[in-house]
Amino acid sequence: MIYTLENNIAVLKVDTYACEIASFRRKDKDIEYMWNGDPKYWSGRNPTLFPHVSSPKDKILNFKGQDYKVNNHGFCRKSEFEFVEQGEDFLHFRLSANEETLKEYPYQFELNVVYKLTENRVDINYEIVNKEDGNLYFGFGQHPPFNCPLVSDKQFSDYWIEFEKEDVEGGKLPLSYELFEKYPTYVVKDPKSRIYTLSDGENKVRMYTDEKYKLFAIWTPHAPFVCLEPWVNTLDYDDGSTPFEKKNVEVLEKGEKYLISYGFEII
After folding, report:
1. Computed from CA positions of residues 240, 241, 247, 253, in that sequence, does the dihedral angle turn out positive or negative?
2. Residue 51: which region, alpha, beta or left (left: phi > 0; alpha: psi -120 to 50)?
3. What is the CATH number of domain 2-266?
4. What percent of the chain shows pLDDT beyond 90?
5. What whole-number distance in Å separates Cα of residue 242 and Cα of residue 167?
6. Which residues lie below 8 Å from residue 131, measured CB to CB, with a gap of 6+?
7. What single DSSP character describes residue 68?
8. How far is it, in rounded angstroms, from Cα 38 to Cα 30?
């Protein structure tokens, strides 16, 4: 089901399926900023990556001493979230451990997601709650795709990504499909930047990230969109044997909560 937030500047639509943004538009511009999930290129929209980012090549992870078959980037992208509450400027959704999640991840958890719309900016706040009688181990990241080009008289190569700091040469990464032939996923490790801007010089998407995000990935499957992906951590593609609890993952003790957020504005 689609829920809508609207103010005098922008309209945001969020789907309970995968808790994904279905649309984000300004009222003064005829531009859809979010990718629509066309399966010709990629059926995803903007999934939350939990309880892991990426996956080993054999799609097997070992939890609590037992092997589990998993999906790439976890199960949130294929989960129906519970609608909790709507206010004047926010939407609250929740996913809790259930029969389906336990098939891939034998942990009791609660994931709360709150979208807040302020003028032309959306902030997404996440709360992970450990419901285990012991530690909770997990990975986390984001995968939002933005239309690129944003307008019909531009092409993909007219765009670039501006970094707040010089994490790339000159603080600016020109986009081209050739770049992603060389680097299928372009990853910046331990970025100093917390702000990233996708731009054609006139139309922009500016992303703001939490300090907990230790990687920044950029991806496109040679398609009319580009994903700007802040990740907390990621799995080693070639390592399917190390127990998940010993990988580069976050750890929550019993009853603890993990808070993280990011957001972006459409300009």
Report:
1. positive
2. alpha
3. 2.70.98.10
4. 96
5. 31
6. 96, 97, 108, 109, 110
7. E
8. 20
Angle (CA) 233-234-238 rounded to 5° is: 150
DSSP 207-259: EEE-TT--EEEEE-SSSSEEEEEEES----TT--SS-GGGSS-EEE-TT-EEE
Decide: 256 and 199 in contact? Cβ < 8 Å: no
User: Which sequence spans correspond to the domains of the chain?
Assistant: 2-266
- Cα angle 43, 112, 64; round to 5: 85
User: Cα–Cα distances in Å, from 165 out to 4, 158, 171, 194, 200?
Assistant: 34, 21, 6, 8, 19
Q: Residue 82 belongs to what H/E stretch?
A: strand 82-86
- The string over 27-44, giving b where at least 16 C-beta atoms fall within 10 Å of a residue's C-beta and e elsewhere, is eeeeeebbbebeeebbeb
What does the alpha-carbon distance between residue 266 and residue 196 come to, in Å, rounded to a whole number?
A: 12
Q: How does pLDDT run across 151-201, given as a tens digit for each residue?
A: 999 999 999 999 999 999 999 999 999 999 999 999 999 999 999 999 999
pLDDT score of 240: 77
Q: For the sheet containing 2-6, what is the strand order?
A: 2-6, 10-15, 20-26
